Amino acid sequence: MRKQLKPMKHSLIILFLVFTQLAGAQNFSRKFGDISDAEMNLTSYDKDPDAGAVVLYDMGESRFIDDQYDYNIRFIRSKRIKIFDKSELDQAEISIPFYVDGRGKTETVESIEVFTYNKVNGEITRTAVKSSDVFEERINERWRRKKFVFPDVQEGSVLEMRYVVESPFLFNLPDWEFQEKIPVIYSQYEVRIIPFYEYVFYLQGKNAFDMQMSRLSSQTRIWGTLNKHMGTTTGNGVEYKENIHTYGMRNVPAFKDESFITSISDYIIKLDFQLSKVHYPSGGSNEIMTTWPKLNKELLDHDKFGKYIKRCSRFAKRAMKNSIDLEGQNEAQKIKTLIQYVKDNYSWNEYNSKFASKSPSEFDTQKTGNSADINLFLLALFNAAEIDAQPVILSTRKNGKINTDYPFEKDFNYVVVMAGREKPILVDATNVFLPFYKIPVRCINETGLIVEKNEVNWVELKDQILSSKRNQIIIRPNPETLKAATSILSFYDGYEAGLFKDQHNDDIASIKDFFLSKEISQINGVKTRNYDQPEEAYQIFIEGEMDIEQIGDKIVISPFLDLAMNENKLSQKDRNYPIDLIYAREESFSTTIFIPEGFEVEHLPGNENTSDDLADIQLNYEKTEEDKILVTGKYTLKKAVYSPDEYSKVKKHFDTIVRRFNDDIVLKSTL
Length: 671
What we know:
By secondary structure, the chain is mostly beta strands. Helix content is 15%, strand content 40%.
């Protein structure tokens, strides 16, 4: 269950001591506000003619600015986008995240300049966003964002913006993404480093930049106080020059295939930074880039992690004494009971964190908290029940993958628990819809770090158990009305049940809307079962009607309605990153079609039986003597994650499923 991962391929880690110089390129002016007729008249991007928009330039700069005897980081970004057609009008929606530490320090977003350029009667017009149309929104406990929309955006518009983010957090040197969902003609990032801070950077997605150069600034800066008089220098200050590092890429292709991946940030071309060392002007230095053993120790000593678990013990012991009965239960039963107790008595506030947000007393009183409040309290319950348990920190799917070669504590944003001695399992108490032995889908992201003393061990987060959907369908066609009385009994289990419950919340109107989108034209009744029983299959019973297609004296029936996979989202010729389905899955169908009087079968699709180590696809059609057609089908995707080498085979399997499970049956009138 524990695994030490190898370094990520196609990655580059370099200290700021080594640099190369490559040539850059320029297609349009990068001066803010200098919009040319050539840009306004541009109708397509020659290297990607089908692109609905293109980034003309994207330029960023990070520098250290004086703040008395300390420094802030000032990040300045300017960007220009050309819109070709309506498919990319959402490029006008901008979100700028900024960090808040919860202890009084915060990043700020300043000097926002936003303009939309259009051509009207041969003249270039400019429309600015109003300051009143810039909004602030809370993302979670540590992150906020500024949001705005470019005004008057249409086909042919040029969008340009510039803004400043000022940060007191020196560990958080802004990263840079060279690649986007649309192509980028030119992207450049300049970082002006002062000698007191040493960073490492991590280039993902490419082995080199198109342009990379380093130089010393021509100006001299001073830390502290220095007085120069007649060749004598006095004071406690230090003179220094900035190291200016510039990185550029040109003609970066759009990241197009977003299907079945963890997060786009795991695969796009980008540059990440990590503070590794601080050199104090007064002398001495401090290693910031930690090791995995040190990171574990720091977490176990942390007031909102290890110490929080210890402070929870009083409340856990009280719950064990007054509210929880484990008498006669084996280890697995005890684990289930304790998880259910937390799910029944405490609610998740939908914030992800590896650190508790409140004291154990506040959490116990308020009965709600973030993922760490809940799962670290669960860990304290396991300790009180003398069940072996350790915290496991991880990065959620949207947050990106963990690189196990580099101990960056900031990359982790969640904690679950590994419980049990003989057969340890990963558990989480935030999702009431999942069986006790499953962690939420958002947590299934390659690997997690077990936080324990004097050891460094990793645990795989993938789920080995199939999640399934089973559909039993009865169709009674009526050629006179061109309707078919239709009933559906669906069984969802595992993650399939959890996701369906999350999306529809057992709401009859929402469930109706779902099935009305699956070729059911009218719904007369809906019943559900086991909504609050996560270990049981969630059942949905639908009674209604479907429309029948008529072609001359023939009627056409889709035996699986539109419930089967009907689109192959693997659209690229090849792929150099995994196909991440999150969990192995299976979907099965059993359909009975009553042949109406005066009709016979004209076309019955052939059977299918495909099987290998990647997938099973089975399909069987049978006409019975009782004027019925029985259709059974099942497809099983055996792996949660398929490697890039398996892409072509998996894509072919998807093609087979889409084609065969959407075949039609044709009945012909005998009258």
